[in-house]
Design a protein that fits this description.
three-stranded antiparallel sheet, alpha+beta, 108 residues, single chain, 3 strands
Length: 108
């Protein structure tokens, strides 16, 4: 529901009313009681864009942002905790391993 600005032409009193669009304009001044009130034309409040961008995620709650940060930091620590792969004790550095030939049938 929009907020409308009004002014009384009799006493000069300016005021605002939060009304549905379908409501009739107010005619009677709440201060002097005369029927000389006019609705003022204005730009209204409309949509307010704030922040660095106009994305849905810009308006997330602080609790959501904090939980998202903790999830991201949790996955980073999991990858850091992984141990590097160890090489087999049988192989020496720079030595290539040969494929095993045990239990393989030779073509006839």
């Amino acid at each position: 529901m929009p907020t409308y600005d009004y002014i009384c032409e009799n006493c000069g009193h300016e005021f605002e009313r939060f009304q549905p669009i379908t409501a009739n304009p107010i005619r009677k001044c709440p201060l002097c009681g005369r029927s000389k009130v006019k609705r003022l034309l204005g730009s209204g409040s409309g949509v307010i864009f704030k922040g660095s961008g106009f994305y849905q995620t810009d308006y997330r709650s602080e609790s959501y942002k904090n939980s998202e940060k903790s999830e991201k930091s949790g996955t980073d620590t999991d990858t850091a905790k992984k141990k590097p792969e160890t090489k087999s004790k049988d192989t020496k550095p720079g030595e290539k391993t040969k494929p095993s030939t045990k239990n393989k049938k030779e073509p006839a």
